[in-house]
Amino acid sequence: MLINFGRALLALTLVLFAVTASAQNKVVVVPLAGDDLKPLANIVTVATANGDFSDPIAAMASINDADGTNPYLVVIAPGVYDLGSQQLAMQSHVDIAGSG
Predict the structure, then answer these.
(1) Buried (b) or exposed (e) across 1-26, using 16+ Cβ within 10 A?
(2) 94 forms bridges with which residues in the sheet?
(3) What is the rounded CA–CA span in Å between residue 31 and residue 35?
(4) Which whole-number Å values give the CA distances from 48 to 2, 4, 43, 75, 88, in the listed order?
(5) Distance of alpha carbon 25 from alpha carbon 94, whole angstroms
(6) Residue 19 confidence (pLDDT) above 60
(7) Cβ distance 44 to 75 under 8 Å?
(8) C-alpha closest to that of 79 among 44, 43, 46, 45
(9) Element spanning 97, H or E
(10) Model confidence over 29-86: pLDDT tens digits?
(11) 3-state secondary structure string across 32-96
(12) pTM above 0.70, yes or no
């Protein structure tokens, strides 16, 4: 019985690891309330590799049509981003999410 429990625990650990490992490169936007919420269509990614941009300032500067009916989300992946002497200026109707 103890061996079966150990195997079940090992199997559960492997499944959880596989789910966690495969979900690291995905962005999920979950509406929190309301019936009139629409999926966010404007997602800009910043990453050291394979993102829309490798520079957060350039990503923010590329957004010129954000408003209440056209919001954006800038997702910054883990990494070190050297902004030099520049500052990352926030815009209205643009949210930033980061990880790492």
Answers:
(1) eeeeeeeeeeeeeeeeeeeeeeeeee
(2) 72
(3) 9
(4) 46, 44, 17, 12, 17
(5) 21
(6) no
(7) yes
(8) 46
(9) strand 94-98
(10) 655 666 666 677 899 999 999 999 999 999 999 999 999 999 999 999 999 999 999 9
(11) CCCCCCCCCCEEEEECCCCCCECCHHHHHHCCCCCECCECEEEEECCCCCCCCCCCCCCCCCEEE
(12) no
Residue 79 identity (one-letter amino acid): G
Q: Tokens 């883990």 — which residue? A: 78
C-alpha pair distances (Å), 35 with each of 17, 30, 39, 58, 95: 34, 13, 12, 34, 21
